[in-house]
Amino acid sequence: MLLNSRVLLFASLVTIFITLVLLVSFFEEQSATAGFHGLGDAFWWAVVTASTTGYGDVVPQTGAGRILAVGVMFLGVISMSLITGTVASVLVERKILRGLGMEKIILTGHLIICGYNFRLIRIIGAIRKMYPDNLPILVINQAEEEKIMEVMSQTKDRHLHFLRGDYVHEEILKQGNAARAQAALILSDFTTPERTDERTILAALALRAANPGLRIIAEIQREENIPHLRRARVNEIVCGDSYTPFILASGVLSSGIPRTLDILLQPGSAQSLKVGQIPASLVGKTFKEVSSHFREKDSALVIGLVSETRKGISLSDILSSDSSAIDQFITRKLAEAEPEILTQRAGLQVLIAPPDGQEIEPKDMALLLGGKS
Predict the structure, then answer these.
(1) What is the domain range of residue 65?
(2) By three-state DSSP, how is residue 91 classified?
(3) Do 158 and 140 reside in the same domain of the chain?
(4) What distance in Å separates the CA atoms of residue 145 and residue 321, rounded to the nearest whole number?
């Protein structure tokens, strides 16, 4: 509304400006000592005067012309102030709306991060080290404004966007254009600690309904809730309860394992774990040949194979006969969703240290240790 009123005011000033120029030109042309020679000189003088440049090569000579010139000068000052103020207010408003999560989201091929916890800044940093800088990231949560402003200020990422809202609601996901996203990461949301895992499962169902082909990675707190996420067709599940006991226990008897894992899981490290695409020319070849290829080409060690297969499923395939209340909820949600959600399921298989003679399949990828980025 404010912008529209300023546009209307600016249009009025332009109209007055043109009127003054025409009047100055008229009075000057009526005088024998005319300072202008045609309408072109009048406009040139008016623009130079209004912009406060003031070359002085053309000036009005008549009294009426000089009186009108004073109006042109004031008009120039007002117009410049209006333009500067409008541009500044638009930029400030856009920054404020972005910080408040109220900006209009126009993204495609982006990554959606649902939820908030103390690891959010580090996760965004790790993503930037491992993936292209121009990958748009949309964070959706209801965290306090101070926390979001802290994330924005510390990351200083121009491709990072924020949408305020409850990510378990389909309207919010629609506003974040989840249907056109390429992946989604669901964090354990500590803003509601008593319902963290429940909201993670609800978010997975809402995201899957919004985009059946979306790659979803979910963080969960309690290991017993992992089956629920699998039934919601989450591609990758990370549970802190699964890894922490092993890391802590291994450090008791051997100091090497925790430190080794720290190196392997360091984002952007030359020795970190990666998944690499196997060239089509190596399909049908052996694991030994693939290992030699990556060793010679990228100085990387192939420690295993990762393959993703798809097969048709139905509700009976993913839910047990004595399903719990949350299973029944998942059943209802999947039944209400698009039919194609139940047609395929991605099955991820990881084979560590396969035999040298293992034949490479078309969908196989290499699990790499180290190598060139």
Answers:
(1) 2-100
(2) helix
(3) yes
(4) 45
CB 118 within 8 A of CB 144: no
> Residue 1: which residues within 8 A CB-CB, separation 6 or more?
none
**pTM for the whole structure:** 0.62
Q: How many domains does the chain have?
A: 3
- In this structure, are 156 and 252 located in the same domain? yes
- Residue pLDDT, tens place only, 101-151: 556 678 899 999 999 998 999 999 888 887 766 889 999 998 888 888 888
Measured between alpha carbons, how far is residue 81 from residues 2, 10, 20, 76, 88 in Å?
15, 11, 19, 9, 10
Tell whether 361 and 263 lie within a shared domain. Answer: no
User: Torsion over CA of 332, 336, 340 and 341, rounded to 10 degrees?
Assistant: -40
Average pLDDT over residues 172-180: 92
Closest of 305, 292, 295, 298 to residue 353, by C-alpha: 305
Q: Are 183 and 216 in contact (CB under 8 A)?
A: yes
Q: Are residues 165 and 196 in the same domain?
A: yes
Q: Which of 60, 81, 100 corresponds to the end of one domain?
A: 100
